[in-house]
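User: I'm curious whether this sequence folds into something compact or stays loose and floppy. Could you predict its structure so I can see for myself?
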Amino acid sequence: MTELTLRPLSAHQSAALSGRIAVPGDKSISHRSLILATLAVGESTVSGLLESEDVLNTAAAMQAMGAAVRRDDEGIWHVGGVGVGSLLEPEAPLDFGNAGTGVRLVMGMVASHPIAAMMIGDASLSRRPMGRVLDPLRQFGAEVIARSGDRLPLALRGPATPAPISYRVPVPSAQVKSAVLLAGLNTPGITTVIEPVPTRDHTERMLTGFGASLDMSIDNEGARVIRLHGRPELKPQAMVVPADPSSAAFAIVAATIVPGSEVVVENVMLNPTRTGLFQTLAEMGADLTFENTREEGGEEVADIRVRSARLKGVTVPPSRAPSMIDEYPVLAVAAACAEGSTVMEGLAELRVKESDRLAAVSAGLAANGIEHEAGADSLVVHGRKSPIGGGTVETHLDHRIAMSFLVLGLVADKPVTVDDVAIIATSFPGFIDLMRGLGADLREGADLAEGESA
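Assistant: Here's the prediction. I'll summarize afterward.
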Protein backbone atom coordinates (compact mmCIF):
# COMPACT_ATOMS: atom_id res chain seq x y z
CA MET A 1 0.00 0.00 0.00
CA THR A 2 1.11 3.57 -0.65
CA GLU A 3 2.65 5.35 2.35
CA LEU A 4 2.87 9.12 2.61
CA THR A 5 4.94 11.23 5.00
CA LEU A 6 3.20 14.39 6.20
CA ARG A 7 4.90 17.61 5.16
CA PRO A 8 3.28 20.84 6.42
CA LEU A 9 3.62 24.13 4.53
CA SER A 10 2.39 27.65 5.26
CA ALA A 11 1.33 30.36 2.81
CA HIS A 12 1.88 34.01 3.72
CA GLN A 13 0.39 37.21 2.36
CA SER A 14 2.27 37.85 -0.87
CA ALA A 15 3.15 40.74 -3.15
CA ALA A 16 1.75 40.84 -6.69
CA LEU A 17 2.18 37.60 -8.63
CA SER A 18 3.63 37.79 -12.13
CA GLY A 19 4.96 35.51 -14.82
CA ARG A 20 4.11 33.14 -17.64
CA ILE A 21 3.68 29.49 -16.69
CA ALA A 22 2.72 26.11 -18.07
CA VAL A 23 0.82 23.74 -15.80
CA PRO A 24 0.94 19.95 -16.19
CA GLY A 25 -1.05 17.96 -18.73
CA ASP A 26 -4.68 17.16 -18.08
CA LYS A 27 -5.12 14.30 -15.62
CA SER A 28 -8.33 12.96 -17.14
CA ILE A 29 -6.87 12.79 -20.63
CA SER A 30 -3.57 11.36 -19.36
CA HIS A 31 -5.29 8.37 -17.73
CA ARG A 32 -7.44 7.75 -20.79
CA SER A 33 -4.49 8.06 -23.16
CA LEU A 34 -2.64 5.22 -21.44
CA ILE A 35 -5.73 3.01 -21.21
CA LEU A 36 -6.86 3.44 -24.82
CA ALA A 37 -3.31 3.09 -26.13
CA THR A 38 -3.12 -0.25 -24.30
CA LEU A 39 -6.34 -1.37 -25.99
CA ALA A 40 -5.07 -0.37 -29.45
CA VAL A 41 -3.04 -2.68 -31.67
CA GLY A 42 0.45 -1.21 -32.16
CA GLU A 43 2.44 1.64 -30.65
CA SER A 44 0.89 4.95 -29.64
CA THR A 45 2.76 8.02 -28.42
CA VAL A 46 1.69 10.52 -25.79
CA SER A 47 3.23 13.99 -25.51
CA GLY A 48 2.57 16.17 -22.48
CA LEU A 49 1.48 13.29 -20.25
CA LEU A 50 0.93 14.33 -16.64
CA GLU A 51 3.76 12.58 -14.82
CA SER A 52 2.06 12.55 -11.44
CA GLU A 53 1.84 9.66 -9.01
CA ASP A 54 -1.77 8.99 -10.03
CA VAL A 55 -0.99 8.71 -13.73
CA LEU A 56 2.22 6.76 -13.21
CA ASN A 57 0.21 4.21 -11.21
CA THR A 58 -2.11 3.81 -14.20
CA ALA A 59 0.91 3.39 -16.48
CA ALA A 60 2.20 0.62 -14.20
CA ALA A 61 -1.20 -1.09 -14.31
CA MET A 62 -1.16 -1.03 -18.11
CA GLN A 63 2.28 -2.57 -18.12
CA ALA A 64 1.10 -5.27 -15.71
CA MET A 65 -1.64 -6.21 -18.19
CA GLY A 66 0.69 -6.58 -21.15
CA ALA A 67 1.36 -3.12 -22.59
CA ALA A 68 4.93 -2.09 -23.37
CA VAL A 69 5.22 1.33 -21.69
CA ARG A 70 8.32 3.52 -21.81
CA ARG A 71 9.31 7.19 -21.64
CA ASP A 72 11.96 8.44 -24.07
CA ASP A 73 14.64 11.04 -23.41
CA GLU A 74 12.43 13.82 -24.82
CA GLY A 75 9.61 13.08 -22.40
CA ILE A 76 7.37 11.37 -24.94
CA TRP A 77 5.63 8.23 -23.73
CA HIS A 78 5.38 5.17 -25.97
CA VAL A 79 2.69 2.56 -25.37
CA GLY A 80 2.72 -0.73 -27.26
CA GLY A 81 -0.89 -1.85 -27.11
CA VAL A 82 -2.17 -5.42 -26.91
CA GLY A 83 -5.58 -4.77 -28.43
CA VAL A 84 -9.17 -5.13 -27.21
CA GLY A 85 -9.71 -8.61 -25.79
CA SER A 86 -6.03 -9.39 -25.27
CA LEU A 87 -5.25 -8.06 -21.79
CA LEU A 88 -3.02 -10.26 -19.69
CA GLU A 89 -3.97 -11.18 -16.16
CA PRO A 90 -1.74 -9.18 -13.78
CA GLU A 91 0.49 -11.31 -11.56
CA ALA A 92 0.36 -8.92 -8.58
CA PRO A 93 -2.21 -6.48 -7.15
CA LEU A 94 -2.58 -3.24 -9.09
CA ASP A 95 -1.74 -0.38 -6.69
CA PHE A 96 -3.49 2.86 -7.69
CA GLY A 97 -2.28 4.93 -4.74
CA ASN A 98 -4.66 7.90 -4.54
CA ALA A 99 -5.99 7.64 -8.12
CA GLY A 100 -9.77 7.40 -8.08
CA THR A 101 -9.99 8.10 -11.80
CA GLY A 102 -7.37 5.49 -12.62
CA VAL A 103 -8.89 2.68 -10.58
CA ARG A 104 -12.46 3.30 -11.75
CA LEU A 105 -11.54 3.44 -15.43
CA VAL A 106 -9.39 0.31 -15.15
CA MET A 107 -12.29 -1.49 -13.47
CA GLY A 108 -14.31 -0.83 -16.60
CA MET A 109 -11.45 -1.93 -18.82
CA VAL A 110 -11.03 -5.24 -16.95
CA ALA A 111 -14.74 -5.97 -16.42
CA SER A 112 -15.35 -7.41 -19.89
CA HIS A 113 -12.06 -9.33 -20.20
CA PRO A 114 -11.79 -12.96 -18.99
CA ILE A 115 -9.10 -12.13 -16.44
CA ALA A 116 -8.97 -11.43 -12.72
CA ALA A 117 -7.30 -8.43 -11.11
CA MET A 118 -6.89 -7.29 -7.53
CA MET A 119 -6.93 -3.52 -6.99
CA ILE A 120 -5.57 -1.69 -3.97
CA GLY A 121 -4.86 1.92 -3.02
CA ASP A 122 -3.81 4.24 -0.24
CA ALA A 123 -5.86 4.99 2.88
CA SER A 124 -7.84 7.75 1.17
CA LEU A 125 -8.72 5.69 -1.90
CA SER A 126 -9.63 2.71 0.26
CA ARG A 127 -12.29 4.82 1.98
CA ARG A 128 -13.96 5.85 -1.27
CA PRO A 129 -17.07 3.89 -2.34
CA MET A 130 -16.85 2.14 -5.70
CA GLY A 131 -20.42 0.86 -5.89
CA ARG A 132 -21.57 3.38 -8.49
CA VAL A 133 -19.00 1.98 -10.91
CA LEU A 134 -19.26 -1.66 -9.89
CA ASP A 135 -23.06 -1.85 -10.14
CA PRO A 136 -23.18 -1.50 -13.96
CA LEU A 137 -20.04 -3.61 -14.37
CA ARG A 138 -21.78 -6.48 -12.60
CA GLN A 139 -24.51 -6.22 -15.24
CA PHE A 140 -21.90 -7.08 -17.88
CA GLY A 141 -21.27 -10.29 -15.93
CA ALA A 142 -18.23 -9.20 -13.92
CA GLU A 143 -17.73 -10.80 -10.51
CA VAL A 144 -16.52 -8.62 -7.63
CA ILE A 145 -15.24 -9.43 -4.17
CA ALA A 146 -14.82 -6.23 -2.17
CA ARG A 147 -14.86 -4.90 1.37
CA SER A 148 -18.20 -3.77 2.74
CA GLY A 149 -19.53 -0.75 0.92
CA ASP A 150 -17.76 -1.88 -2.29
CA ARG A 151 -14.45 -0.42 -1.13
CA LEU A 152 -10.85 -1.33 -1.90
CA PRO A 153 -9.08 -3.66 -1.73
CA LEU A 154 -11.20 -5.60 -4.21
CA ALA A 155 -10.86 -8.34 -6.77
CA LEU A 156 -12.66 -8.20 -10.12
CA ARG A 157 -13.04 -11.03 -12.64
CA GLY A 158 -14.49 -10.45 -16.09
CA PRO A 159 -16.82 -13.00 -17.74
CA ALA A 160 -15.92 -15.28 -20.62
CA THR A 161 -18.80 -13.81 -22.62
CA PRO A 162 -19.85 -10.34 -21.46
CA ALA A 163 -23.39 -9.15 -22.19
CA PRO A 164 -24.05 -5.65 -23.55
CA ILE A 165 -26.12 -3.40 -21.35
CA SER A 166 -28.15 -0.22 -21.54
CA TYR A 167 -27.34 1.91 -18.51
CA ARG A 168 -28.84 5.18 -17.36
CA VAL A 169 -26.31 7.02 -15.19
CA PRO A 170 -28.19 7.83 -11.94
CA VAL A 171 -26.04 10.82 -10.95
CA PRO A 172 -23.70 12.88 -13.15
CA SER A 173 -20.36 11.04 -13.28
CA ALA A 174 -17.87 10.96 -16.13
CA GLN A 175 -16.07 8.13 -14.36
CA VAL A 176 -19.14 5.88 -14.28
CA LYS A 177 -19.98 6.68 -17.90
CA SER A 178 -16.39 6.04 -18.98
CA ALA A 179 -16.12 2.75 -17.07
CA VAL A 180 -19.26 1.46 -18.81
CA LEU A 181 -17.97 2.51 -22.23
CA LEU A 182 -14.58 0.89 -21.60
CA ALA A 183 -16.33 -2.32 -20.55
CA GLY A 184 -18.36 -2.09 -23.74
CA LEU A 185 -15.24 -2.24 -25.88
CA ASN A 186 -14.76 -6.00 -25.38
CA THR A 187 -18.48 -6.74 -25.29
CA PRO A 188 -20.24 -8.00 -28.44
CA GLY A 189 -23.16 -5.92 -29.63
CA ILE A 190 -24.07 -2.39 -28.63
CA THR A 191 -23.51 -0.93 -25.17
CA THR A 192 -25.69 2.09 -24.43
CA VAL A 193 -25.11 4.84 -21.86
CA ILE A 194 -27.89 7.33 -21.13
CA GLU A 195 -26.63 10.51 -19.51
CA PRO A 196 -29.37 12.89 -18.26
CA VAL A 197 -26.79 15.54 -17.30
CA PRO A 198 -23.78 15.90 -19.64
CA THR A 199 -20.35 15.37 -18.07
CA ARG A 200 -16.83 15.72 -19.43
CA ASP A 201 -16.70 13.97 -22.80
CA HIS A 202 -13.01 13.07 -23.15
CA THR A 203 -13.73 9.33 -23.34
CA GLU A 204 -16.16 9.72 -26.25
CA ARG A 205 -13.84 12.04 -28.15
CA MET A 206 -10.83 9.79 -27.63
CA LEU A 207 -12.66 6.57 -28.46
CA THR A 208 -13.71 8.11 -31.76
CA GLY A 209 -10.13 9.20 -32.40
CA PHE A 210 -8.90 5.65 -31.81
CA GLY A 211 -11.40 4.31 -34.34
CA ALA A 212 -14.28 3.05 -32.20
CA SER A 213 -17.80 3.39 -33.58
CA LEU A 214 -20.04 5.58 -31.42
CA ASP A 215 -23.49 6.96 -32.16
CA MET A 216 -24.62 9.93 -30.08
CA SER A 217 -28.09 11.45 -29.90
CA ILE A 218 -30.51 13.27 -27.60
CA ASP A 219 -33.64 11.43 -26.46
CA ASN A 220 -37.14 12.84 -25.94
CA GLU A 221 -36.31 13.79 -22.34
CA GLY A 222 -33.20 15.72 -23.33
CA ALA A 223 -30.76 13.05 -22.10
CA ARG A 224 -27.59 12.29 -24.02
CA VAL A 225 -27.57 8.76 -25.46
CA ILE A 226 -24.23 7.14 -26.37
CA ARG A 227 -24.17 3.83 -28.27
CA LEU A 228 -20.85 2.01 -28.56
CA HIS A 229 -20.37 -0.84 -31.04
CA GLY A 230 -18.34 -3.52 -29.30
CA ARG A 231 -15.10 -5.26 -30.22
CA PRO A 232 -13.52 -2.70 -32.54
CA GLU A 233 -9.87 -2.82 -33.53
CA LEU A 234 -8.51 0.40 -32.10
CA LYS A 235 -5.76 2.10 -34.12
CA PRO A 236 -2.66 3.54 -32.41
CA GLN A 237 -2.52 7.32 -32.16
CA ALA A 238 -0.06 10.16 -31.60
CA MET A 239 -1.64 12.08 -28.74
CA VAL A 240 -0.93 15.53 -27.30
CA VAL A 241 -2.24 16.16 -23.77
CA PRO A 242 -3.28 19.80 -23.23
CA ALA A 243 -2.80 21.60 -19.92
CA ASP A 244 -5.23 20.64 -17.18
CA PRO A 245 -7.84 23.36 -16.47
CA SER A 246 -8.25 21.95 -12.96
CA SER A 247 -4.54 22.48 -12.28
CA ALA A 248 -4.58 25.89 -13.98
CA ALA A 249 -7.36 26.93 -11.61
CA PHE A 250 -5.03 27.48 -8.65
CA ALA A 251 -2.76 30.00 -10.38
CA ILE A 252 -5.76 31.65 -12.03
CA VAL A 253 -7.57 32.19 -8.72
CA ALA A 254 -4.34 33.26 -7.00
CA ALA A 255 -3.63 35.89 -9.67
CA THR A 256 -7.23 37.09 -9.43
CA ILE A 257 -7.25 37.65 -5.66
CA VAL A 258 -3.67 38.85 -5.00
CA PRO A 259 -3.73 42.61 -5.73
CA GLY A 260 -1.63 43.87 -8.65
CA SER A 261 -1.05 40.41 -10.14
CA GLU A 262 -0.79 39.54 -13.83
CA VAL A 263 -0.13 35.94 -14.86
CA VAL A 264 -0.41 34.03 -18.14
CA VAL A 265 -1.20 30.30 -18.01
CA GLU A 266 -0.32 28.64 -21.30
CA ASN A 267 -2.05 25.97 -23.38
CA VAL A 268 -5.09 25.46 -21.12
CA MET A 269 -7.78 23.11 -22.42
CA LEU A 270 -11.15 24.76 -23.04
CA ASN A 271 -13.36 21.71 -23.49
CA PRO A 272 -16.84 23.11 -22.73
CA THR A 273 -17.49 20.31 -20.24
CA ARG A 274 -14.55 21.56 -18.14
CA THR A 275 -14.81 25.38 -18.15
CA GLY A 276 -17.42 26.02 -15.46
CA LEU A 277 -14.90 27.70 -13.15
CA PHE A 278 -13.82 30.18 -15.81
CA GLN A 279 -17.46 31.07 -16.50
CA THR A 280 -18.15 31.51 -12.79
CA LEU A 281 -15.07 33.66 -12.18
CA ALA A 282 -16.08 35.88 -15.11
CA GLU A 283 -19.52 36.33 -13.55
CA MET A 284 -17.80 37.30 -10.29
CA GLY A 285 -15.85 40.02 -12.11
CA ALA A 286 -12.53 38.28 -12.79
CA ASP A 287 -10.31 39.72 -15.54
CA LEU A 288 -9.62 36.72 -17.82
CA THR A 289 -8.45 37.06 -21.41
CA PHE A 290 -8.20 34.03 -23.72
CA GLU A 291 -5.31 34.48 -26.14
CA ASN A 292 -3.95 32.43 -29.03
CA THR A 293 -6.97 30.12 -29.14
CA ARG A 294 -6.20 27.01 -31.19
CA GLU A 295 -6.78 23.24 -31.41
CA GLU A 296 -4.37 20.64 -30.09
CA GLY A 297 -4.99 16.92 -29.78
CA GLY A 298 -8.65 17.36 -30.74
CA GLU A 299 -9.30 19.90 -27.97
CA GLU A 300 -9.59 23.69 -28.05
CA VAL A 301 -6.82 25.34 -26.02
CA ALA A 302 -5.77 28.91 -25.24
CA ASP A 303 -3.33 30.93 -23.19
CA ILE A 304 -5.24 32.58 -20.32
CA ARG A 305 -4.09 36.03 -19.15
CA VAL A 306 -5.26 36.81 -15.62
CA ARG A 307 -5.17 40.22 -13.97
CA SER A 308 -6.21 40.83 -10.39
CA ALA A 309 -9.76 42.02 -9.90
CA ARG A 310 -12.32 42.80 -7.19
CA LEU A 311 -14.81 39.94 -7.07
CA LYS A 312 -18.46 39.93 -6.10
CA GLY A 313 -20.52 37.04 -4.78
CA VAL A 314 -22.74 35.10 -7.18
CA THR A 315 -25.09 32.12 -7.20
CA VAL A 316 -23.63 29.17 -9.08
CA PRO A 317 -26.38 27.04 -10.66
CA PRO A 318 -26.38 23.33 -9.77
CA SER A 319 -26.38 22.47 -13.48
CA ARG A 320 -22.84 23.83 -13.72
CA ALA A 321 -21.43 21.41 -11.15
CA PRO A 322 -20.36 18.66 -13.60
CA SER A 323 -18.21 21.14 -15.53
CA MET A 324 -16.29 22.30 -12.44
CA ILE A 325 -16.71 19.60 -9.81
CA ASP A 326 -12.99 19.55 -8.97
CA GLU A 327 -12.76 23.34 -8.78
CA TYR A 328 -15.20 24.05 -5.95
CA PRO A 329 -12.50 24.09 -3.24
CA VAL A 330 -10.54 26.83 -4.97
CA LEU A 331 -13.78 28.62 -5.93
CA ALA A 332 -14.59 28.70 -2.20
CA VAL A 333 -11.26 30.48 -1.70
CA ALA A 334 -12.15 33.03 -4.39
CA ALA A 335 -15.56 33.46 -2.76
CA ALA A 336 -13.89 34.17 0.60
CA CYS A 337 -12.26 37.19 -1.03
CA ALA A 338 -15.38 38.44 -2.83
CA GLU A 339 -17.79 41.15 -1.81
CA GLY A 340 -21.01 39.52 -0.68
CA SER A 341 -22.06 35.89 -0.56
CA THR A 342 -21.43 33.12 -3.06
CA VAL A 343 -23.96 30.29 -3.17
CA MET A 344 -22.90 26.88 -4.52
CA GLU A 345 -25.45 24.07 -4.89
CA GLY A 346 -25.52 20.57 -6.35
CA LEU A 347 -22.30 19.52 -4.61
CA ALA A 348 -23.23 15.99 -3.50
CA GLU A 349 -20.41 14.54 -5.63
CA LEU A 350 -17.87 16.32 -3.40
CA ARG A 351 -18.81 14.01 -0.55
CA VAL A 352 -17.16 11.03 -2.31
CA LYS A 353 -13.97 12.57 -3.68
CA GLU A 354 -10.45 11.96 -2.30
CA SER A 355 -11.94 13.15 0.97
CA ASP A 356 -15.41 14.29 1.93
CA ARG A 357 -14.32 17.36 0.05
CA LEU A 358 -17.29 19.49 1.08
CA ALA A 359 -16.63 18.78 4.77
CA ALA A 360 -12.90 19.42 4.29
CA VAL A 361 -13.56 22.79 2.61
CA SER A 362 -15.97 23.78 5.36
CA ALA A 363 -13.45 22.82 8.06
CA GLY A 364 -10.69 24.74 6.28
CA LEU A 365 -12.85 27.85 6.01
CA ALA A 366 -13.83 27.61 9.68
CA ALA A 367 -10.19 27.19 10.76
CA ASN A 368 -9.39 30.47 9.02
CA GLY A 369 -12.30 32.57 10.23
CA ILE A 370 -14.31 32.54 6.98
CA GLU A 371 -18.05 32.81 7.56
CA HIS A 372 -19.96 30.13 5.66
CA GLU A 373 -22.75 27.58 5.83
CA ALA A 374 -22.38 24.04 4.52
CA GLY A 375 -25.39 21.85 3.74
CA ALA A 376 -25.73 18.27 2.57
CA ASP A 377 -24.96 19.34 -1.01
CA SER A 378 -24.43 23.09 -0.78
CA LEU A 379 -22.00 25.73 0.41
CA VAL A 380 -22.53 29.44 1.01
CA VAL A 381 -19.40 31.53 1.56
CA HIS A 382 -19.61 35.08 2.90
CA GLY A 383 -16.67 37.00 1.52
CA ARG A 384 -14.59 39.81 2.91
CA LYS A 385 -11.91 41.98 1.33
CA SER A 386 -9.16 40.46 3.43
CA PRO A 387 -9.75 36.95 4.84
CA ILE A 388 -8.52 36.36 8.38
CA GLY A 389 -6.47 33.14 8.03
CA GLY A 390 -4.20 31.94 10.79
CA GLY A 391 -5.49 28.37 10.85
CA THR A 392 -4.12 24.94 10.05
CA VAL A 393 -6.04 22.98 7.43
CA GLU A 394 -6.30 19.19 7.49
CA THR A 395 -5.95 17.97 3.91
CA HIS A 396 -7.28 14.44 4.56
CA LEU A 397 -4.91 13.17 1.84
CA ASP A 398 -6.66 15.44 -0.68
CA HIS A 399 -4.37 17.31 -3.06
CA ARG A 400 -6.98 19.90 -4.06
CA ILE A 401 -7.68 20.86 -0.44
CA ALA A 402 -3.94 21.41 0.07
CA MET A 403 -3.47 23.60 -3.01
CA SER A 404 -6.68 25.58 -2.51
CA PHE A 405 -5.90 26.68 1.04
CA LEU A 406 -2.31 27.57 0.15
CA VAL A 407 -3.87 29.99 -2.35
CA LEU A 408 -6.00 31.45 0.47
CA GLY A 409 -2.88 32.12 2.53
CA LEU A 410 -1.49 34.40 -0.19
CA VAL A 411 -4.10 37.06 0.66
CA ALA A 412 -5.10 36.27 4.25
CA ASP A 413 -4.22 38.58 7.13
CA LYS A 414 -2.43 35.71 8.87
CA PRO A 415 -0.54 32.74 7.39
CA VAL A 416 -2.52 29.64 6.43
CA THR A 417 -0.90 26.26 7.06
CA VAL A 418 -1.83 22.97 5.44
CA ASP A 419 -0.85 19.83 7.31
CA ASP A 420 0.46 17.94 4.26
CA VAL A 421 1.72 18.99 0.85
CA ALA A 422 3.29 15.63 -0.03
CA ILE A 423 -0.11 14.58 -1.40
CA ILE A 424 0.04 17.34 -4.06
CA ALA A 425 2.37 15.15 -6.12
CA THR A 426 -0.58 12.88 -6.96
CA SER A 427 -1.83 15.46 -9.49
CA PHE A 428 0.51 18.47 -9.68
CA PRO A 429 4.21 17.72 -9.15
CA GLY A 430 6.07 21.03 -9.18
CA PHE A 431 3.13 23.08 -7.86
CA ILE A 432 5.07 24.63 -4.99
CA ASP A 433 8.07 25.66 -7.10
CA LEU A 434 5.79 27.01 -9.82
CA MET A 435 3.84 29.18 -7.36
CA ARG A 436 7.05 30.40 -5.73
CA GLY A 437 8.29 31.33 -9.19
CA LEU A 438 5.27 33.62 -9.56
CA GLY A 439 6.09 35.28 -6.23
CA ALA A 440 4.01 33.25 -3.77
CA ASP A 441 5.42 33.27 -0.23
CA LEU A 442 5.31 29.58 0.71
CA ARG A 443 7.34 28.45 3.70
CA GLU A 444 8.13 25.01 5.07
CA GLY A 445 6.31 23.78 8.17
CA ALA A 446 8.37 25.75 10.73
CA ASP A 447 5.76 28.50 10.37
CA LEU A 448 2.99 26.49 12.04
CA ALA A 449 0.90 28.54 14.41
CA GLU A 450 2.17 28.72 17.96
CA GLY A 451 1.24 25.71 20.04
CA GLU A 452 0.65 23.42 17.07
CA SER A 453 2.79 20.58 15.84
CA ALA A 454 3.20 18.78 12.56
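Summary: The chain is about 30% helix and 25% strand. The chain has a mean pLDDT of 94.
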